[in-house]
TrEMBL record:
<feature type="binding site">
    <location>
        <position position="207"/>
    </location>
    <ligand>
        <name>Mg(2+)</name>
    </ligand>
</feature>
<dbReference type="GO" id="GO:0006304">
    <property type="term" value="P:DNA modification"/>
</dbReference>
<feature type="binding site">
    <location>
        <position position="205"/>
    </location>
    <ligand>
        <name>Mg(2+)</name>
    </ligand>
</feature>
<protein>
    <recommendedName>
        <fullName>DNA nucleotidylexotransferase</fullName>
        <ecNumber>2.7.7.31</ecNumber>
    </recommendedName>
</protein>
<keyword id="KW-0479">Metal-binding</keyword>
<dbReference type="GO" id="GO:0006303">
    <property type="term" value="P:double-strand break repair via nonhomologous end joining"/>
</dbReference>
<keyword id="KW-0548">Nucleotidyltransferase</keyword>
<dbReference type="GO" id="GO:0005634">
    <property type="term" value="C:nucleus"/>
</dbReference>
<dbReference type="GO" id="GO:0003677">
    <property type="term" value="F:DNA binding"/>
</dbReference>
<keyword id="KW-0780">Terminal addition</keyword>
<dbReference type="GO" id="GO:0046872">
    <property type="term" value="F:metal ion binding"/>
</dbReference>
<comment type="similarity">
    <text>Belongs to the DNA polymerase type-X family.</text>
</comment>
<keyword id="KW-0808">Transferase</keyword>
<feature type="binding site">
    <location>
        <position position="294"/>
    </location>
    <ligand>
        <name>Mg(2+)</name>
    </ligand>
</feature>
<dbReference type="GO" id="GO:0003912">
    <property type="term" value="F:DNA nucleotidylexotransferase activity"/>
</dbReference>
<keyword id="KW-0460">Magnesium</keyword>
<dbReference type="GO" id="GO:0003887">
    <property type="term" value="F:DNA-directed DNA polymerase activity"/>
</dbReference>
Amino acid sequence: KKTLPANPLPTVSQYACQRRTTLDNHNKVFTDALEVLIENYEFSDNKGACVGFRRAASVLKSLPKPLRCLKDMEGLPCLGDDTKAIIEEIYECGSSSRVENILSDEKYQTLKLFTSVFGVGPKTGDKWYRRGLRALEQVHSEPSIQLNKMQAAGFLYYEDISKPVSRAEAKAVGCIIEEVASCFSSSVTITLTGGFRRGKEFGHDVDFLLSIPEPGKEDGLLPAVIDRLRKQGILLYSDLQESTLQQWKRPSRCFDSMDHFQKCFLIVKLWTRLVEGHREDPSSRRDWKAVRVDLVVPPVDCYAFALLGWSGSTQFERDLRRFARLERRMLLDNHALYDKTTNTFLQAKTEEDIFAHLGLDYIEPWQRNA
Ligand code: DGT
Ligand code: MG
């Protein structure tokens, strides 16, 4: 007599770029727990442990239904013994002691707080922690601490930029950017990328790709945009990074290296009356909100690669690159796709072209929430 598997799941690929991951996460109890571990390993710069747990969490996010028993984990890729033990404990006790210990750990709590400030990464956070600092007010009133320009803005606008940005706010920001960019050139197009392109209702910032169809015409676009925002009195912070594309040779193996496009990281003042669906709140002290905005200007011939690279999720991007390298002997980054077998660059006008070069089924942006 044959017995059927308890819960037959379709075969799941080890690569996020071969899975469709919507925002509908049926295994949030488990992925939330794993994300605490990941964050804690990021704080201690344990890259190896991060990789394993990130892949495991990403596999769980892609599943079409909740894991109902331990047997459901059989045959799933990327679930190491540590992950399985955590899932098992959550099944049995409702929570994981390893995760609970981290959540109540003073160092974890403090680093989470410090790194929630724009411009403060794990290294700086750890430095402040080792000096005995535990609260943002303590950092701010410590005379021996020199904040850089980015961190100073991070503290100044902390209340606003630590709050999520809504889709309606992102749209309103888009209208402002579109308006100021079109003063520079009427042929500028603007595309919302990042989490909002993947269908998220809230984000930590708003990411846009700006593009001009005529090659070379994009020089000077961001300085002009920044200048106009300043003149309108709505520029609260700007960090302009000029293009370093000349130094770029071919895709690098390292995901975390930033791309070479002209880009800027901004904080803008968004008048709340410009936000659709906004209702006057008489108790509110201000009629504006500070919002983090990233603008990126890729040259036209890189546009599809930039769009794919800036749409995320970060885990989806990592797995696309890993897939390209290990399964196709190709190097992918935000600028290009390079075939190491033929030593050629593969051109692409659209994201679909890039998936086709890689021999992958096309994955829609809202299915990239890996
Ligand atoms: P959010 O803003 O928290 O809702 O989430 P996302 O997915 O919009 O994340 P965000 O804004 O940090 O970045 C958007 C995408 O841009 C991200 O999925 C990948 C790309 N990106 C951002 N920073 C880097 C980086 O340092 N290196 C590379 N290669 N790509 C990056
Ligand atoms: Mg974003």
